[in-house]
């Protein structure tokens, strides 16, 4: 049975109550490099986003899920993006807020749940992740769960006056 429920965390749909957390995350400049954000988001824009977050992945080609512990504490988000049902692939992104949640297995458990869901429920053949070469934590996370390094995009991100390479990782469902 495929489930979005793990031992310590579960993945759930976004709720209107997530607005403050989403606002804080989307306006955290330390994660803008990953999301390619250039300017802050208003509460209004994020409220409208939450109103439409219930739409089907086949319609909007993306799915954002909240990562929550069993005390209902929101720990981060995990996304499928560029969902392509014809070619059976999707991109994966994850952010776990620091606040004592990192290095506790939250990201590993969330990514494992999303992989299983994607392969079993959505029929995805492959997942991919784009990770800057200096993001050791993400490289380790995705590598530990079977994503393979398949390519490098040279000078892909321009951040703080310098270019950074981006590494492409893929996990192909062989079953």
Automatic annotation (TrEMBL):
<protein>
    <submittedName>
        <fullName>GNAT family N-acetyltransferase</fullName>
    </submittedName>
</protein>
<dbReference type="Pfam" id="PF13302">
    <property type="entry name" value="Acetyltransf_3"/>
</dbReference>
<dbReference type="GO" id="GO:0016747">
    <property type="term" value="F:acyltransferase activity, transferring groups other than amino-acyl groups"/>
</dbReference>
<dbReference type="InterPro" id="IPR000182">
    <property type="entry name" value="GNAT_dom"/>
</dbReference>
<feature type="domain" description="N-acetyltransferase">
    <location>
        <begin position="9"/>
        <end position="174"/>
    </location>
</feature>
<dbReference type="InterPro" id="IPR016181">
    <property type="entry name" value="Acyl_CoA_acyltransferase"/>
</dbReference>
